[in-house]
Amino acid sequence: MSSSSPIASGPWARRVSRQVTISQGAHQVQVGGGAPVMVQSMTNTDTADAIGTAIQIKDLARAGSEVVRLTVNSPEAAAAVPAIREQLDRMGVDVPLVGDFHYNGHTLLMDYPECAQALSKYRINPGNVGKGAKRDTQYAQMIEAACKYDKPVRIGVNWGSLDQALLARIMDENAQRATPWPAQAVMYEALVTSAIENAQRAEELGLAGDKIILSCKVSGVQDLIAVYRELARRCDYPLHLGLTEAGMGSKGIVASTAALSVLLQEGIGDTIRISLTPEPGGDRTREVVVGQEILQTMGLRKFTPMVIACPGCGRTTSTVFQDLADKIQTYLRDQMPIWKGEYPGVEGMNVAVMGCIVNGPGESKHANIGISLPGTGESPAAPVFIDGEKRMTLRGDRIAEEFQGIVLEYVQSHYGKQAAV
Question: pLDDT under 50 in the chain at which residues?
Fold first, then answer.
């Protein structure tokens, strides 16, 4: 029996939140308030190495990181921040920089005003700003610096460094309940309470409410989902999503995707970071690519043309289609820093690279451009489909080069200035 109404599709309505603006000169990045979900990343260089850090930031920004966070943990690091900003400006990289502060942030922001000014945003972990009587004073000093230099702040709670005094208070309150909550629920409550109370305290100290972003970082998928659902319910600050210590390789990618996709589908989350441990010799920009691919495959944003490729089976013993898919995907991503300015809209293009006659022609017809390569025992010919119609057939040893040329010609003729003529 069929349904009486059409099957619904797509994510839930976005959670309503305030909007925070992160500025670097004339360049502005919006977070929350209906702005597209923003992708960010973090350096792993020694910040005191100004040249090395600036180069990595440039690479991250070129890959698509819309803001980049860097560690500010020492006088040497703080002194290097203005030089990093200056170097980026010389390279024409206007990505905003976020300073990540722990333990001594209050001192560094006061002692290095040029650092405080060069940064576009501060990240403060309220569990790492001091203990006892010092905590309130040192937290206030950091918020006062944000007010003085007109900078937004991310108040980032982490379950590995919770404010112990607050946790003890929550535990005492729990002990008074007729039926005490389990330890896990107490931890969730402490995370959410810490984030909201510290945001409220920042506003009491003079920081505008539209300059505050919150995060509650945990390393378990179900923990992250539970905490952010409650955080989203109890406040209207923009929320930064990220599974902390997600791990390396496929484990880190799968865990981050599982957690963030559920929340994003429910309309929760305004900016994301994929915290991947780089593999030996790995590229730091991979976390940016993964973040973009999560958002694009969910239909929330478009960053680069998508390549649709079959997984292969006994019909596709040749690896030709695998090689072609890899070359085309790499080519498209490498071109995007140029194409996104010259050919607006190209990021929504779909390219199909299929390996045999079973699904090859059908999938290729659904893409903007598609090629169906011959499977085992099939005729050595590769039909090319453009906007659903077969236009040509490629043969020989230069199929990859010829197909890449067809893709470029399609981009030039269908997007940007030439398409408008």
Answer: none
Check the CA dihedral 330-336-342-344 and report its sign: positive
The rounded distance, in Å, linking the Cα atoms of 40 and 146 is: 20
How would you classify the pairing of strands 382-386 and 369-372? antiparallel
Cα 8 from Cα 167, distance rounded (Å): 42
**Angle at Cα 114 formed by Cα 195 and Cα 201, nearest 5°?**
20
Tokens for 82, please give them.
Answer: 């203005």
- The pLDDT tens digits for 365-420 are 999 999 999 988 888 899 999 999 999 999 998 999 999 999 999 999 999 765 65
Q: Among the residues of 367-415, which ranges form H helices?
A: 399-414
For residues 153-192, one letter each, b for 16 or more C-beta atoms within 10 angstroms of the residue's C-beta and e for the rest, the string is bbbbbbbeebbeebbeebbeebeeeeeebeeeebbbbbbb
Handedness of CA 12, 295, 261, 245 (dihedral sign): negative
Question: Which parts are annotated binding residues for [4Fe-4S] cluster?
Answer: 310, 313, 356, 363
Q: Which residue's entry shows tokens 């598609």?
A: 370
> Are the beta carbons of 100 and 72 closer than 8 angstroms?
yes
Binding residues: 310, 313, 356, 363
The β-bridge relationship of strands 27-32 and 38-42 is: unpaired
The answer to whether 29 and 22 have CB atoms below 8 angstroms apart is yes
Q: What angle do CA 18, 129, 242 make, to 5 degrees?
A: 50
At 102, which helix (H) or strand (E)? none
Q: What is the pTM of this model?
A: 0.95
Q: In this predicted structure, what is the pLDDT of residue 321?
A: 85
Contacts for 195 with CB less than 8 Å, ≥ 6 apart: 126, 155, 157, 214, 215, 216, 231, 235
